[in-house]
Specification:
Length: 234
């Protein structure tokens, strides 16, 4: 089971899972996110990867709001992600309990299709301050998952939450994905894309992505709305 958003990290995780010989069920959520262009990207990526099944689930997190991704709150732009203040701050793009909700759906589906491994592209280094991307959170969820399912209680399956990117820099992720043949032109990362899906180049996700490609010595193949001083975006 691979949680596939259509972004850089989850697409790399899909490639990792397949390289390890897993037959993959991909799971994507349409949850009211402003950057819903990622759902179309996930569809194309899953199709091209030849997954066993691509499950697209509709949930409405806009009923709770509380995030710039699910309510009428401006997406922060041009934040200094290298400052100590930004490292300690949980940004407004954090969606309350999102990974807990996503993993719960994945847990239910994994039990039905008899999958023992759930892959998720969380990262504890370039993660923009999200609390549900930390190793201790993943470890706690895995313990809970094996207490909460019939398969776990009966001892038929020990569920493992796989986080192959959790300790990697964005540059290392990109180099790894490139070595596995990931087409990053098919992915999208921007929190606030333009009308045609072009990335803004200034939100946290764009900054982390651009920095990762720069540090990896590669050009980012996606389109950006404006030219950045770094010359990486186009």
């Amino acid at each position: 089971m691979v949680l596939l958003s259509g972004g850089l990290d989850s697409t790399t995780v899909l490639a990792i899972a397949q390289s390890e010989g897993f037959a993959v069920h991909a799971l994507t959520f349409r949850y009211g996110q402003r950057h819903s262009v990622e759902v179309d990207a996930a569809k194309r990526i899953a199709r091209d990867a030849g997954v066993v099944n691509h499950h697209l689930v509709d949930i409405d997190l806009t009923v709770f709001g509380g995030s710039a991704l699910t309510s009428d709150i401006a997406v922060p732009k041009n934040r200094d992600l290298g400052s100590s203040a930004s490292a300690e701050e949980i940004p407004v793009t954090y969606v309350p309990a999102r990974n807990s909700i996503f993993l719960s759906y994945a847990l239910a589906l994994a039990e039905v299709v008899e999958a023992a491994d759930i892959f998720i592209g969380v990262n504890a280094l370039d993660y923009s301050g999200y609390p549900d991307c930390r190793p201790e959170y993943i470890e706690a969820f895995e313990r809970m998952a094996n207490l909460a399912t019939r398969a776990g209680v009966e001892g038929r399956t020990h569920l493992t939450i796989r986080t192959p990117l959790i300790s990697l820099t964005k540059a290392a992720i990109i180099r790894l994905g490139t070595s596995l043949g990931v087409d990053y032109a098919a992915t999208t990362s921007c929190y606030d894309p333009g009308d045609h899906g072009e990335a803004c180049g200034a939100c946290d996700a764009c900054q982390l992505r651009l920095r990762g490609f720069s540090e990896a010595g590669l050009a980012d193949p996606i389109d950006y709305a404006r030219t950045r001083a770094s010359g990486v975006a186009r």
